[in-house]
Amino acid sequence: MSGVWAVCVDFIDALNEAARSTYPDEFICLHRAHNGIIDEFVMLPGSVFGETHSFINYWMDPIDYERTGSAHSHPGYSAEASEDDLQVFRSTGGVHFITCLPYDRTSWRVYNSAGERISLELVYEDGTKVELEE
Ligand code: ZN
Q: For residue 56, what pLDDT is reported?
């Protein structure tokens, strides 16, 4: 997605928190960016969380959000995109997050619409870079 260069640490924390509370089901949402920083959840009305990847339907929601992509959780220790994930990424465009156990600030990956891993800066709300302790 053009212009997106970073993700806000609050977004990652909230994603992980949602993933934890939805566990062992998957949490799925869309997101939005401001000034190139992804920092807002777009929750879809009537979202049902389940074990299957069913969010293609969500993208057919007629409401035209200014979407930058999707984010979902895996109830395991792999944030590798599944075949289903890749298909969704390819058909939807944008930037796609997957977080996995233990749902912390390093347990997420981000993919482009071709399903290739990309890297985004992790920043605070004001755009300063977050330093992660190893
Ligand atoms: Zn997945």
A: 45
More confident residue, 33 or 44: 33
Distance 130 CA to ligand 1 centre (A): 26
Q: Could you report the per-residue pLDDT of 42-70, keeping only the tens digit for each? A: 876 555 555 554 454 455 454 444 578 89
> What is the domain count for the chain?
1
Ligand 1: centre distance to CA 65 (Å): 22
How many Å lie between the centroid of ligand 1 and the Cα of residue 127? 28
Residue 129 lies in a domain: no
CATH number, domain with residue 118: 3.40.140.10
Ligand 1 center from residue 74 Cα (angstroms)? 6
Phi, psi of 30 (to 5 degrees): -110, 170
Within a domain: 132: no
Residue 109 and residue 129: Cα distance in Å, rounded?
17
